[in-house]
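Anyone opening a protein record will find just a pair of labelled lines. With that in mind, the following record should read easily:
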Amino acid sequence: MITNAIILLSIAASVIAFNNRSVFNKYLFNPYATYHHKQYYRLFTHAFLHGDYMHLAFNMYALYIFGQVLEEQYFPVLFQKKAAFYYLLLYVGGIVFSSMYELFRQKDNPNYTSLGASGAVTAIVFSVILINPTIGMGIIFVPVFIPAWIFGAIYLLYSWYMGKRQLDNIGHNAHFWGAVFGFVFTIILKPALLSRFFSEIF
């Protein structure tokens, strides 16, 4: 299964990088190095590295929960034989697309770096939201669930606001653009999902 393979690869890569700083520095996302030194691989490899074990655990837990549902249930019904290919394309596209905003915004800043699978995972989550907007969603360890479309709207607004404020070291812009990619990409694959999304909400 693709989800499990991604999780295992992410854990292995992150643990190796935790213990080898040169690997960590070589493969994390640095827009300056990516743009000026043509190290385009960084657009992809950074998603398999994480800042610490907590960062890794949160991302892999979210990927496991939502990725399994998307890969094993939703996509096979919607796309049949192309389900695995589209699922992989969604994840890889989420990695790259969620990084493009900071690539061009920070391309002349050699000190800016980021890493983690959050952009790709958010793409997975928002694909689920499009397909099943009334499913219950919430924050881990908080036993309160709200409809997915409401959770998604709040998440987008929060990510946009925090991305503008830049008050912490979290990649809010990657979260925002990863979410946009996951939602729009799934619509492109199956345009009828958009009308069904609104009919389920209203």
User: Anything to note?
Assistant: Residues 2-201 form a domain with the Rhomboid-like fold fold (CATH 1.20.1540.10). The chain has ten helices and two strands. Strands lie at 136-137, 146-147.
